[in-house]
Amino acid sequence: MLIWKCRDLNLDLTQHALVMGILNVTPDSFSDGGQFALLDSALHQAEQMLAEGANLLDVGGESTRPGAEPVCVEEELRRVVPVVRELTRRTKAMISVDTTKESVARATLAEGAHIINDISACRFEPAILDPIREYRAGVILMHMQGTPQTMQLNPSYSDVVTEVRNFLQERIQFLVEAGIAADSIAIDPGIGFGKTHEHNMILLKELREFQKLRKPLCLGVSRKGFIGQITGKPRNDRVAGSVAVACDALTRQSAQIIRVHDVAPTVDAVRMIEAIRLS
Ligand SMILES: Cn1cnc2c(O)nc(N)nc21
């Protein structure tokens, strides 16, 4: 059994994956060209992804693409809190918030968010654990070597799979010792976050290794650079490549949360794979 507890939700991920729709409310988000910075366009995009079958949405106010400029907490709050508030008011959507800041986590959980997706695995602001604990929120711990500003300068590992897995194991232990419920924690290898092309490919090939941690695994590969390197396609033409990687991970039952821009094709792929598996 693989249960993920996120506030009042008990999600059984033993046989079913979740499709997480990406909702960037950032002017420089690498794939949306920042058109979702406005509240109404963000809500329109959210409703579109929910209509396409997204199980949850990941709302982010600070771009995490390589070299992105950091965003101050006031600006990040201005961007994400109104979106979470309106989504909670208008929909029954399960909401994840992509942030590393304690005050953004607290404010969005207070508005009804269910999950904190922290690309720093709660290292940048350890106080983020307080609202996560208080609201019994779900939390996604992602591996990143360095910061979005430095991570792609010279990624290096002696054994990338072992080091990423050990890092995630250590972070799980740290959170449990800090009073976070073990079954509210999900993990993520952080594809593209301080990894060369080879590191990304090895992590994907050996993804089953992370099952040893017995936690839901989130995988975010949608439209990322390594897909372009292999297919030769530009960012806005990487749906097939992204879905193929998702299918590979799902078929090996190595990922339970798939974080994507293109919800409809991913939902179809998940449904087909699970229909075959459960037939
Ligand atoms: C915010 N963000 C961008 N890429 C991501 C990934 O691969 N995983 C997670 N958890 N968050 C991501």
Oligomeric state as shown? single chain
Secondary-structure arrangement, i.e. CATH architecture: Alpha-Beta Barrel
What small-molecule ligands were found?
A: 9-methylguanine
Query: Which value, in Å, is the CA radius of gyration?
Result: 17 Å
> How can the largest sheet be summarized?
8 strands, parallel
At the third CATH level, what is the topology name?
TIM Barrel
Q: How are the strands of the biggest sheet laid out side by side?
A: 8-7-6-5-4-3-10-9
* Low-pLDDT stretches: none
Estimated structural class: alpha/beta
The rough form would be described as globular
- Helix and strand succession? EEEHEHEHEHEHEHEHHEH
- Average pLDDT, to the nearest integer? 95
Total separate domains: 1
- Classified in CATH, the superfamily is Dihydropteroate synthase-like
What percentage of amino acids are in beta strands? 15-25%
CATH class: Alpha Beta
- Number of DSSP helical runs: 9
